[in-house]
Give the backbone structure.
Amino acid sequence: MKTTAMVLSIGLLAATAVPVHGQSTTDLNTQTTTMNNLAPSTGESNVIGKISGDFSSLLGADATAVVTGLRNGTPITLKTTTTTPSTTTGGTPTTTTTTTVITPPTGQMGYGNVYISLALAKQQLAALGITQPTASQLQAALTGGTITQTSVTGTTAATTTTTLDGILTLRSQNMGWGQIAQKLGYKLGPVMSSMKSANQHLASQTTSTGATPTPTASQSNSSGIVSAGGQVQGNSAHGNSSAKGSSSGIVTAAGRGGNAYGRAGVVTGSGQSAGSSGGIVSGGGSSNGNGGGQAKGHK
């Protein structure tokens, strides 16, 4: 009986552990979708700026370039300049520039996935005691490679080499973020919490500035609008077939001009026109007087 109870307890613990992990993944997916959806309303540059700001301590001056490269799936070129003092007294220091190219194997990614990639890379590097990585160390964290560290100097110096799989490389192998975090031994909770805070900041910007309203047909002031079904739209038409245009006549696809009040005549699809200033010309080339018809001009 004791053995059965112990097995049952272990089974219950295992069963409760799965939903917790699943819930974290679900919450993270929700925040990812939210960040992607906020981009059109708050502005692409604002989202890039927010992500760059959140990881500025990790990426330094290259933050915007890295975020943009991950977003577009394009190679990221990072240049590192080092200066070595001269070995001779009064000599000129030697300056060396090293170029590192990070090519994302994932291709173009949404803003949410860019955020998660950098958050997991930051955790992995922090576990190695690296908070401000070099270009090559960042490359190893994102796409894979080795990181060599020397713990102390002098005769007791110890050098260790760590091989990293690369966050983006794992992602390109169709691994979910939950699987990647589990493989690396990290929790998604801190990543989700950080993304949620970033989304709240972006949402507040959208609320304060407001989205630019899209002009509708009823807000047109200069001329009538032609609809495919021959319905007259626009501010001058007020959505009715009898339009009072302030500038020009109205043409409909069905060939009906309505009672248009304007400076120019009204031409129908069948070639019949009623002008307020000139005569009426039909599609057959005949002229019908001096602006009889149904059009009444301001003049």
